[in-house]
UniProtKB/TrEMBL annotation, chains A, B:
<keyword id="KW-0813">Transport</keyword>
<keyword id="KW-0408">Iron</keyword>
<keyword id="KW-0249">Electron transport</keyword>
<protein>
    <submittedName>
        <fullName>4Fe-4S binding domain protein</fullName>
    </submittedName>
</protein>
<keyword id="KW-0411">Iron-sulfur</keyword>
<dbReference type="InterPro" id="IPR011576">
    <property type="entry name" value="Pyridox_Oxase_N"/>
</dbReference>
<dbReference type="InterPro" id="IPR012349">
    <property type="entry name" value="Split_barrel_FMN-bd"/>
</dbReference>
<dbReference type="GO" id="GO:0046872">
    <property type="term" value="F:metal ion binding"/>
</dbReference>
<dbReference type="Pfam" id="PF13237">
    <property type="entry name" value="Fer4_10"/>
</dbReference>
<feature type="domain" description="4Fe-4S ferredoxin-type">
    <location>
        <begin position="147"/>
        <end position="170"/>
    </location>
</feature>
<dbReference type="Pfam" id="PF01243">
    <property type="entry name" value="PNPOx_N"/>
</dbReference>
<dbReference type="InterPro" id="IPR017900">
    <property type="entry name" value="4Fe4S_Fe_S_CS"/>
</dbReference>
<keyword id="KW-0479">Metal-binding</keyword>
<dbReference type="InterPro" id="IPR017896">
    <property type="entry name" value="4Fe4S_Fe-S-bd"/>
</dbReference>
<feature type="domain" description="4Fe-4S ferredoxin-type">
    <location>
        <begin position="175"/>
        <end position="202"/>
    </location>
</feature>
<dbReference type="GO" id="GO:0051539">
    <property type="term" value="F:4 iron, 4 sulfur cluster binding"/>
</dbReference>
<keyword id="KW-0004">4Fe-4S</keyword>
Length: 202, 202
């Protein structure tokens, strides 16, 4: 799966969860529609009177989550910026999402501002697979940061982590243990139990 | 609908979005299972090695969103605290949610800590109704804060807001305009257009 495909899945799911942070530094979230995907750009909108709008004006980092019908979860993180040509995108969005006319009939649509996320990280996570499967992709040129755990060269090959891992995501390579990140829950069981502290967080 | 009923709907939906804030003050979210509802208490769990766990340890405010099959959205805000008797709740949760044994087989469940949200605000929002419908409830004794807009006594009864409101949520009462909050989008169109600034945010 590539990032574009995951963005299109978000558009298909349409109603997704958008998280932001309020001015007290606390998390906020609400269901928001993915209105449009163009290349690797994701568009949504909100009304200027809403708390969500205020939050975006103060901190434009957003985190998006959605769940497919097959219980695969998709997470996206990026920054949301207002588009330059609001009227153009508003009209385009209302054309592609005609139900919007029921909520904001006629000219009332002009209270809405369109936002775009043009780069970010998108993560796919399937907890129903055995072992679980995860994949992290970037779009719009964002850099991927390593997450989860790795085992360093101080590993004494005692295989404690290998025996404990709930997903059998640990294997031996060149005499030391390794974590297969795509199957790792990031649960930290290996990290807590390594007798020589060879398991590190990225 | 009361708060307990909405909590039970969250449990039925089960896979919901949980938002938290990381140590840079940015939003994070992921799909989390609602594992148990007891009275007005909501239980979930996460592994001690996960970023989510760290975030909760630094700021235990969480925001939860979910969508019913009929596209009604439910939002919950509260504080998540670790339960006193982790083993008791872990075992209970695994009994009520047997699929957890596939993800954390055997003793590996002990890497999980159970959290409880025992008070908070829960909001129901139905965008498919005409007019839209919203309801805010509290549970566990949390106090509800007014949100959205109201019209103060400086209203000159020009009816501009009445004519603009996309959801016809404004009505006349005793010679001035009023907002029916349960049908209000909080879009701010009345607020932006009132010629005498009689529309205020709560």
């Amino acid at each position: 799966m590539n990032a574009k495909e995951l963005l299109l899945i978000l558009r298909e799911i349409k109603d997704v969860s958008f998280s932001s942070v309020d001015n007290s530094g606390n998390p906020k979230c609400r269901i928001i529609d993915i209105m449009l995907i163009e290349d690797e750009r994701l568009y949504f909108l909100t009304a200027r009177g809403k708390d969500f709008y205020r939050e975006l004006m103060e901190n434009n980092h957003v985190a998006v989550t959605a769940l497919t019908k097959n219980f695969e979860s998709i997470r996206l993180e990026g920054k949301a910026n207002k588009v330059g040509d609001n009227k153009y995108y508003l009209d385009k969005i209302f054309e592609c999402n005609p139900a919007m006319n029921e909520v904001y009939p006629g000219d009332s649509r002009n209270i809405l501002d369109v936002f775009c996320i043009d780069k970010g990280i998108i993560e796919y996570f399937d907890l129903s697979k055995h072992p679980i499967y995860r994949q992290t992709l970037s779009f719009g040129g964002e850099k991927i940061k390593d997450k989860g755990y790795f085992i360093n060269e101080t590993c004494i090959n005692c295989k404690k982590c290998f025996n404990l891992c709930p997903q059998s995501a640990i294997y031996e390579l060149n005499g030391i243990m390794n974590i297969k990140n795509e199957n790792c829950l990031h649960c930290g069981l290996c990290y807590e139990n390594c007798p020589v502290k060879a398991v590190e967080r990225w």
